[in-house]
Amino acid sequence: MNKFGSGRAAIWRLTVAQALVGAHSTIIFATGAVLGATMAPDDSLATLPISVFVAGMAASTLPSGLVAERYGRRAVFLGGAALGILSGLIGAYAIMVHSFALFCLATLLGGAFSAVGLSFRFAAAECVPDAVKARALATVLAGGVASGILGGILVSATMGVVPNHAFAGSYVAATACAFLAGAALLGITTPAPLRSSLSADRPLKQILSQPLFIKAVIAGAITYLLMNFLMTSAPLAMRMEGMHQHHANSVVQWHVVAMYAPSFIVGGLITRFGARAVTTAGLIITGLSAAIGLMGETSTHFLVCLVVLGVGWNFGFAGASAMILDTHRPEERGRVQATNDFIVFVTVMIGSFLSGGVLATYGWYVVCWLAFPPIAIAIGALVASRKMPRLA
């Protein structure tokens, strides 16, 4: 860690904030579809709160990028924390009054908070020398290990705190997570926004048309799409099989831990083997998780499936993010990274909207089978990009 130099304090603040943002998201992931099933007017809308969560991620990325480019990342971080606080408060109130619409509003705001949290990885890369950017990025993602444990514990400990209103206490806990994340981010210092000269400024279309950017977006979008598609369906599928909510909480908790635990080594793997190789490995591991899901519908099958899925997401998403770093100049980072995240989250949102209907109509096994074609597409794109040069 001593290689991080003056950026070390910022990286650790970002890591702590990442853990708290992730715990907030874990609470929504573990409860969103289950609460949706009790409040939605139709069973096919049970996963709509999670879909709206992803919509919040997508809707906030471009505005966040513009604000960061003009006022700096700190303004975005603190605004995101405020949205996270509102998300928790509205979620708790929606449960108390049994309002599906208000609950979806809460998850929408939670998605915006989560998207801001995912930008922490790029902020960390800006605080260190080029040689350790991938390592800094992965270190911040490693904060998610604590988020999985903390989020799962919070759900289990608070789900019955408010009598006759299951999970209302969990959303109060989510509010606390957002408040503490904001406190951690208050003391952060990130590099000032860079201004590009008109003569050096490249049109966004030119930047986004780079083959490496296209391949990175495809890989990142499919990695995140499949993680969300399977993870959103799993807790509800477990409840449909008659399993207790504690089992679903545990599965989501260890899934989130698995999403971030590889971050301790993935930065080194990217440095040694390259971002494309690590991203490809992540997609293959994701395919393995879907295969495990096809083997049975016991709590053990769901647990192993989602743990392996989490590992696949980490390799795929960290690798694709590192590829994005090679497609833009420093002064272009805000809009390029925001555009990347916007494309990724719009893709995930579409898949998330479909997941509830697919699960309700065709069952868990079809959800798993549908993972394989996108994986083949993404791997094909990465293989085709193997000899593409880095941005000069």
Overall tally of structural domains: 1
- Cα-atom Rg, whole angstroms? 20 Å
Largest sheet: none
Beta-strand percentage?
A: under 5%
CATH topology-level name? Growth Hormone, Chain: A
User: Which secondary-structure class do the elements indicate?
Assistant: mainly alpha
Query: How helical, in percent, are the residues?
Result: over 70%
In the CATH hierarchy, the architecture is Up-down Bundle
CATH class: Mainly Alpha
Let me know the CATH homologous superfamily.
MFS general substrate transporter like domains
Low-pLDDT sequence parts: 1-6
How far apart are the termini? 28 Å
- Shape assignment: globular
How would you describe this protein?
- The chain is an all-alpha fold and 392 residues long.
- The protein has a single domain, classed as Growth Hormone, Chain: A (Up-down Bundle).
- Helix 7 runs antiparallel to helix 8.
- The protein is globular and about 55 Å long.
- It starts with 7 loop residues before the first helix and ends in an 8-residue tail after the last helix.
- The N terminus is likely disordered.
- Keywords: Membrane, Transmembrane, Transmembrane helix.
Topology:
Blueprint (H helix, E strand, L loop, with lengths): L7 H32 L8 H24 L1 H25 L2 H19 L1 H7 L6 H10 L1 H15 L9 H19 L17 H5 L2 H30 L4 H16 L2 H11 L1 H19 L5 H27 L7 H30 L1 H6 L2 H13 L8
Helix pairs in contact: 1-2, 1-4, 1-5, 1-6, 1-7, 1-8, 1-10, 1-11, 2-3, 2-4, 2-15, 3-4, 3-8, 5-6, 6-12, 7-8, 7-11, 10-11, 10-13, 10-14, 10-15, 10-17, 11-14, 12-13, 12-14, 13-14, 13-17
